[in-house]
Specification:
mainly alpha, Serine Threonine Protein Phosphatase 5, Tetratricopeptide repeat, two-stranded antiparallel sheet, 17 helices, 8 strands, disordered N terminus
Length: about 500
């Protein structure tokens, strides 16, 4: 094993197992993450280490994805004892919040910085310069992505106060365990995120690169960031560029017929149809995130940890021909499931590839469908502000609506509203980590309602009346951001988020 890759992985293990000390880099000298790369092969190995960090169930194969759904209104923990329950119950305190929400993204950022502070000093043959540019682009994009997720977790939505409140800590250099971070404002964080993603676009490769981020995925992510930041014209342009570029490189929206099972497709560089997953975490039986991963957590044959709410299921059932109903696995007694499992609907997007178990399922992080929805949302917002982009809103929203049910379409003679687009995002992106953030960035509340549905007879909210409505103006509003990890505050003395105490 390449020594750089080995050191990166040892550092990750040390961070993930640490329960005290500074979460930035709590490593002894024998497991220090290297601060320098000096060759193309070392850059490649360090990038592989970054993707391995992302693969963890405490990062993008689990917590960093399910948090946005479990804190919303469309999914819930099956019971208060389940792994997803703390997010669903808004149960994190200054003493019990897992450090992984903080430590894993910063481990990714640290190793991206190792690459970015050294890569321009490495001399390579002309034949390797394009590859090195791609490596640099990947490091920039993944650093931007990690800071974006940290800012969402620890900072209030940009639209709440124009980014004036505290967000995450911006780190663009390689740091050691004695580094004392300072929190930047949400506005400063977004400036850095956007700078990183914009810089990555001209460097990243355009071709399919299994399990690695490419130009079209980064453009889609950038369009998402622009939406969160309120830059609707830039969001529209980035989303359109992502769609046009991806579709010119053999990506395409899944068809209605493909949709229910396409999640398990094993796409390769040789595939003439690359499908619509632009960036995913690739898991294998021989390199598995284990049974804490989303595939196992959401499966009735696994931990059956999280399920859809009755209100979401009823919302989707308004159109019985919507293909997305086919990825809600409703477990029944007749199928042989126990009473603790049946009577609930489970999101079946994390489907294993042939010969793998559900815990080995890949995790799609960025899909072409999102680019269409980002474009539609931005166009609808621009139209509402007085600039006529309704034809584009109709076009991009219509593609998703008609794919879900070919008998349905978007009326070109009517004005597409933002709520229309958000409803479609709700249907299309359930289980992919977006819902709570989509509501709050648009000034809406999470409103959990208890509805009747005999098919989901065992599904019932257990969050208590204090967390049936979450958002601005509610006593629980401070809970929409996480408290900082105790270990980090003990060492770095970072200011905690309001409401949690110091």
């Amino acid at each position: 094993m390449n020594k750089i890759y080995k050191y990166v992985m040892m550092g990750i293990v040390a961070i993930s197992m640490s329960s005290c000390g500074n979460d930035w880099l709590d490593l002894d000298p024998s497991t220090s993450v290297p601060t320098k790369v000096t060759s193309k092969s070392e850059v490649d190995a360090t990038l592989n280490g970054i993707y391995s960090t992302m693969q963890s169930p405490y990062a993008y194969s689990g917590r960093l994805v399910y948090y946005g759904d479990m804190t919303g209104d469309d999914m819930q923990a099956v019971s208060s004892t389940k792994r997803t329950a703390s997010a669903y119950l808004y149960g994190f305190t200054k003493s019990n919040v897992p450090s992984s929400y903080w430590a894993y993204p910063y481990s990714i950022i640290q190793n991206c910085n190792v690459i970015l502070t050294n890569i321009d000093k490495i001399e390579v043959a002309d034949a390797d310069k394009q590859t090195m540019n791609d490596y640099k682009g990947q490091a920039l994009a993944l650093r931007g992505m990690s800071l974006f997720d940290l800012t969402k977790l620890y900072g209030y939505p940009y639209t709440y106060d124009n980014g004036a409140s505290l967000g995450a800590s911006i780190v663009t250099d390689v740091v050691d365990k004695d580094y004392m971070p300072q929190r930047s404002t949400v506005a400063q964080c977004y400036e850095q995120i956007i700078n990183d993603l914009e810089a990555s676009i001209n460097l990243l490769g355009e071709k399919f690169n299994k399990g690695k981020i490419n130009k079209w995925a980064a453009l889609t992510l950038l369009s998402r960031v622009y939406l969160y930041h309120g830059d609707n014209e830039k969001a529209l342009n980035a989303a359109k560029a992502a769609i046009e570029g991806a579709e010119s490189h053999q990506y395409q929206l899944w068809t209605n017929a493909e949709y229910p099972t396409a999640w398990s497709n094993d796409v390769s560089e040789a595939s003439t149809n690359k499908g619509e997953v632009l960036f995913e975490i690739v898991n294998l039986t021989t390199d598995s995130p284990g049974k804490e991963s989303l595939g196992y957590l959401y499966s009735p044959n696994g931990y059956y940890d999280g399920c859809v709410t009755k209100s979401f299921y009823n919302f989707l059932k308004k159109d019985n021909d919507d293909v997305r109903l086919k990825i809600i696995n409703v477990a029944t007694k007749a199928q042989g499931y126990s009473s603790s499992v049946y009577g609930r609907g489970y999101v079946n997007k994390y489907q294993p590839q042939q010969g793998e178990g559900v815990e080995d399922a890949n995790i799609p992080l960025i899909r072409l469908s999102e680019a269409y929805l980002n474009a539609a949302e931005a166009a609808a917002k621009l139209t509402a502000a007085g600039s006529d982009h309704n034809a584009e809103a109709v076009k991009y929203l219509g593609a998703i609506v008609s794919r879900a049910n070919p008998a349905k379409s978007v009326d070109a003679s009517s004005t597409v509203t933002v709520d229309q687009v958000l409803d479609e995002r709700r249907k299309e992106l359930v289980g992919e980590g977006h819902r709570m953030f989509d509501l709050l960035r648009n000034g809406k509340k999470v409103v959990r309602v208890e509805e009747s549905n005999s098919t989901l007879s065992k599904t019932k909210h257990t969050c208590g009346k204090d967390f049936m409505t979450i958002g601005e103006g509610e006593d629980n509003f401070y809970k929409i951001v996480l408290p900082l990890p105790l270990a980090e505050r003990n060492v770095s003395h970072l200011q905690n988020n309001p409401g949690y105490g110091e």
